[in-house]
Amino acid sequence: MSKKSQVQSAFVQAIREAYGQGQEDEALEPLVAVDEQGRPLGRVQKGDVVIFYDLRGEREIELTQALTDEEFHYFPVESLDLSMVTMIEYASRLKVKVAFPPEGPVNNTLTEVLSRAGKRVLKISESEKAIHLGYFMNGKQEVIFPGEKRKIIPSPQGIANYAKVPQMSAAQVTEAIIESLEEDHDLVIANYANVDVVGHIEDEQAVLEAVEVVDKELGRVVKACQDKHITLVVTADHGTVEEWYYPDGTIDTGHTRNPVPFVLADFSLSSGSENELKVRSQGELIDVAPTILSLLGVDTPQEMTGQDLLEIGELISSSRSKILLLILDGWGLREEKWGNMIARARTPNFESLWANYPHSLLAASGEAVGMPPGTVGNSESGHLHLGAGRRILLDRVRIDKAIQQGTFFQNEAFLWALDKAQKRGRALHLLGIVSHYSSHGTIDHLFALLRLARQHNVSQVYIHCLIGRRGEKPESGAIYVHKVEEMARSLGIGQVVTVIGRFWALDREENWDRVEKTYRALVYGEGTPVKQDNRRQ
Question: Residue 383 needs a FRET pair 20 to 30 A away by CA distance; which of 8, 124, 467, 536 works?
């Protein structure tokens, strides 16, 4: 590294000053570039071009709406007439071009197959995780199938940090589950969000409490299923807090590569016969859907390549009248106790289930959930594969391959955006997460876009960085912003003009005050001013 590159930029200094004031990456207040006279630089203006390069998409919808929807009414916005491209399709209703559109719907998911068989499915979750049981579990489709119902429990409102309420709305989710066992549903699917959501926050006591809250509610559910003779299946979408430290002892708030549990507690069987029920010792998340179908006596469609986890004998082969599939978000399994917050917490109910009922370890990361080898799992891929019953290549893999093969640089949507910027003489804005590895995107995709802009001689390129420490070491936001600035300098194109925590920008529960803060930073330059050298403009 050159001596010049070792000097902290104004943005990196501003981020580190924010750290010193107690701010963290996730909820970092907006920092905006200004000139020597204090005037905002690089704002999104009428007629500009924007490429939102994030993946996943469910957290990107609201900000995209605010920037593009002419009938947007949740807070005051400008009529910007932007030419906007999103990396993938966030929602079909958005007025944008999509660089990597869906390759086609994931047909014959668990819910769709049950719907076609005349079965009734109820999905229960709190709002923080509702999209996972709906959109992702239904194969990334905005559809509610015949016979499918959803019950969404509001997550605690007005909370900027869930560590303050690690119980979230778990008790209310349990009440809804217990109530549903009296109703006319063939399959009830529910999830507890606490471990995953609170596990992303650097608060040890809150994490332990979140684990224990989920275990307490699991105990209530187990008792209800026993009383009603309901078949209970317990699993998770990925691991999180069972490996909460890096080897050097710093806290790792991200997801993990560890397997997740699968437990089958079949309380519908007569006493003693449950001992004859066996499951395979290992599998993948894609095996859950075929197993549920088998328990309900519904044929598995050809598209589902997952394998039934059951080793079925005659005594237990008849279909169940009702099943509860309970997903403990973020609950991974790891034998090592060091840094294992699940092992440290009091979890008598889970331990009892694991000790007394057939169980299996399921792969929930890497290639098993459509991700690159060796990568961690996430909620999107976890729920997608739980519902799909087959491996689905995620968008990141498609895009990485496009970069490697060179087709990324020939993408029609990107070329359209660059052409608009050149012909109009307008700025190109690159907006998205800056992280080595996030389920919402990667810094590598930003770098590819910068190289593409340089190839096409786009004169004004502004970078708006969303930061948030999930699976990253402390102060990673400053590290990645520095890397972006270094790459822009080496390519001779692009300038960082906004840095803001992803908490504000990537909302999915209509917390419009958060989105408005991001919008006003991007468009009006509202935030802490970071003075830039005029000679670089």
Answer: 467
- The strands making up 187-192's β-sheet, listed across from edge to edge, are 148-153, 121-126, 187-192, 323-328, 231-235, 260-266, 359-363, 282-284
User: Going along 141-186, which residue ranges are E strands?
Assistant: 148-153
Instruction: Quote the pLDDT of residue 441.
Output: 78
Query: How far is 456 from 489, CA to CA, in rounded Å?
Result: 17
Contact yes or no for 383/330 (Cβ under 8 A) = no
- The sheet carrying 461-467 orders its strands as 97-100, 83-88, 49-52, 428-433, 461-467, 495-501, 31-34, 528-531
Query: Residue 151: phi, psi to the nearest 5?
Result: -125, 115
User: Helices H, strands E: what count in the chain?
Assistant: 18, 18
Give residues with Cβ within 8 angstroms of 298, minimum separation 6: 113, 114, 117, 119, 319
pTM recorded for the entire structure: 0.79
Joined tokens for residue 274 = 């449950």
Cβ neighbour number for residue 75 with a 10 Å cutoff: 13
Residues 6+ apart with CB under 8 A from 214: 170, 192, 194, 195, 328, 331
534 has pLDDT over 70: no
Q: How far apart are the first and last CA of the chain?
A: 24
Question: 115-153: buried (b, 16+ CB within 10 Å) or exposed (e) per residue?
Answer: beeebbbbbbbbbbbbbbbbbbbbbbbeeeeebbeebbb
Length of the chain: 537
Residue tagged 């106790």 (tokens): 337
Measured CA to CA, the distance from residue 23 to residue 477 in angstroms comes to: 11
3-state secondary structure of 518: helix
Residue 182: other Cβ atoms inside 10 A:
9
| pLDDT classification of 537: cutoffs 50, 70, 90 | very low
Q: What share of residues in the chain are helix, strand, coil (percent, to 5)?
A: 40, 20, 45
DSSP classification of residue 438: B
Predicted confidence band of residue 318 (pLDDT cuts 50, 70, 90): low
- Backbone φ and ψ for 92, nearest 5 degrees, come out as -65, -20
Whether residue 28 contacts residue 500, with contact meaning beta carbons closer than 8 Å, is answered with yes
Burial class (CB in 10 A: 0-12, 13-18, 19+), 272: exposed
Q: Dihedral, CA atoms, 464, 468, 471, 473, nearest 10 degrees?
A: 90
pLDDT of residue 272: 55
For residue 334, the tally of other CB atoms under 10 A from its CB is 18
Q: Are 432 and 445 in contact (CB under 8 A)?
A: yes
What tokens does 125 get?
């979750």
With residue 261 as reference, give the H or E element that holds it.
strand 260-266
Which residue, among 171, 175, 218, 206, has the nearest Cα to 354 in the 3D structure?
218
